[in-house]
């Protein structure tokens, strides 16, 4: 799977578009995070950790820095991000109707619901 990730990154960087490039939607998020959760349970580590947890961390960083209420998320203990990934996988498995949504929107909605900011 690492080779595919590298090929995708090279494709996006070198050309800007290609057939290997895909939308970062709920389907992509489920694929990356599901593989992370399974490998983490079986091996204690995962090649998908960087993609899944890195994406979630990125959304958190932007959400903490913004003043836009639609994207705002409150600070979250880094240790909880792995648990967020597990919850995310469960939600995505149970609600395929949201797979078309942007991955960042799905993560923000989950964080806002699971960890609301104090008033």
Kindly describe this structure:
The protein is an all-alpha fold. 63% of the residues lie in helices and 0% in strands. Helix 2 (26-43) crosses helix 3 (49-65). It is globular and about 40 Å long. The model is unreliable at 1-19 (pLDDT under 50).
Provide key terms for this protein.
globular, mainly alpha, 0% strand, 119 residues, disordered N terminus, 5 helices
Average pLDDT, all residues: 82
Number of helices: 5
What's the N-to-C terminus distance?
43 Å
Q: Structural class given helices, strands, pairing?
A: mainly alpha
| Approximate shape | globular
Low-confidence segments, given as residue ranges, are 1-19
Helix content: 55-70%
Radius of gyration: 15 Å
User: Into which percentage range does the β-strand content fall?
Assistant: under 5%
Task: Compute the number of strand runs.
Answer: 0
Order of helices and strands: HHHHH
Largest sheet: none
Topology:
Elements: H1 2-15, H2 26-43, H3 49-65, H4 81-94, H5 103-114
Helix pairs in contact: 2-3, 2-4, 3-4, 3-5
What's this, in brief?
The protein has 119 residues and is an all-alpha fold. The chain is built from 5 helices and no strands.
């Amino acid at each position: 799977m690492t080779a595919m990730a590298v090929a995708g990154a090279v494709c996006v960087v070198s050309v800007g578009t290609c057939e290997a490039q895909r939308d970062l939607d709920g389907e992509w998020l489920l694929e990356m995070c599901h593989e992370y959760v399974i490998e983490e349970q079986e091996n204690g580590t995962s090649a998908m950790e960087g993609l899944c947890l890195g994406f979630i961390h990125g959304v958190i960083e932007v959400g903490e820095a913004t003043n836009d209420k639609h994207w705002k998320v409150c600070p979250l203990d880094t240790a909880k991000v792995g648990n967020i990934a597990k919850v995310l996988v469960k939600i995505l498995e149970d609600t395929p109707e949201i797979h078309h949504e942007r991955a960042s929107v799905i993560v923000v909605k989950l964080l806002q619901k699971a960890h609301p900011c104090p008033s």
